[in-house]
Specification:
Order of helices and strands: HHHHHHHH
Number of strands: 0
Number of helices: 8
Low-confidence stretches: none
Distance between the termini: 11 Å
Radius of gyration: 16 Å
Number of domains: 1
Length: 173
C-alpha cells in the first residue's frame, strides 16, 4: 500500500512542478504554501484523536498547523524549511514588488537536512538527464534563483506529503 501511496505522491509532485514552472514568483510561493498547508492538514486530520475538533484547527494559522503536525508525528526536520516558506510568503504578502532573492535560496537550502539536500541534488541531476541535457549544470545551486527556490519548494512539499502518507499508513494499522 505504501508503494501505491508513493506513486501518487510522485505523480502529484510532477503536477506541482508543472504548475510552479508556469508561475511568476508570487504564484510559486503562494501555490507551494497552499500545497504544504494542505499536507499539514492531512497529517493533522489523520492523527487527531478527536476529529470533532478539526473545524477549529482548520482556522489555525500556518505556524500553528506546522507545530501541531510536528507534535502528531511529522518529521521535525521539516520545521525549518516550512518556517522559511512562511517567511518568504509573508514578505511577498507585504512587499508589492517582491521576487525571489539569493537570500531566499540560501536560507531555504540551509534549512534543509543533509538527506534532503542529497535528494534535491539527485532530483536535479535526474531531471537534467531526463530532459536530454545532462551536461547543462552539475549542481542545481548553479541555476537561477527562481529555479532553485522552485525545486526546493517542490522537495519540501514532497517531504511533507510523504510524512502525511506515513501518518495515514500508521493510522491504518
Amino acid at each position: 500500500m505504501i508503494d501505491e501511496g508513493l506513486e501518487k505522491v510522485r505523480h502529484r509532485q510532477e503536477e506541482l512542478n508543472s504548475i510552479l514552472l508556469g508561475e511568476d514568483d508570487l504564484g510559486v510561493i503562494v501555490r507551494a504554501s497552499i500545497m504544504v498547508e494542505a499536507e499539514l492538514m492531512d497529517i493533522i486530520s489523520t492523527m487527531m484523536p478527536k476529529k470533532t475538533e478539526l473545524k477549529k484547527i482548520e482556522k489555525f494559522d500556518f505556524d500553528k498547523k506546522k507545530i501541531l503536525a510536528i507534535s502528531l508525528g511529522m518529521n521535525k526536520d521539516l520545521e525549518g524549511p516550512i518556517q522559511q516558506i512562511q517567511k518568504i510568503r509573508n514578505r511577498f504578502a507585504h512587499e508589492i514588488s517582491s521576487s525571489f532573492t539569493k537570500a531566499d535560496a540560501d536560507n531555504l537550502y540551509s534549512s534543509l537536512g543533509e538527506f534532503d539536500k542529497r535528494v534535491l541534488n539527485q532530483t536535479y541531476r535526474t531531471a537534467a538527464e531526463k530532459l536530454g541535457n545532462p551536461g547543462r549544470l552539475k549542481e542545481f545551486r548553479q541555476t537561477n534563483i527562481k529555479e532553485q527556490v522552485t525545486l526546493m519548494l517542490s522537495t519540501i512539499w514532497t517531504a511533507v506529503a510523504v510524512s502525511a502518507l506515513k501518518a495515514r499508513e500508521a493510522n491504518a494499522e
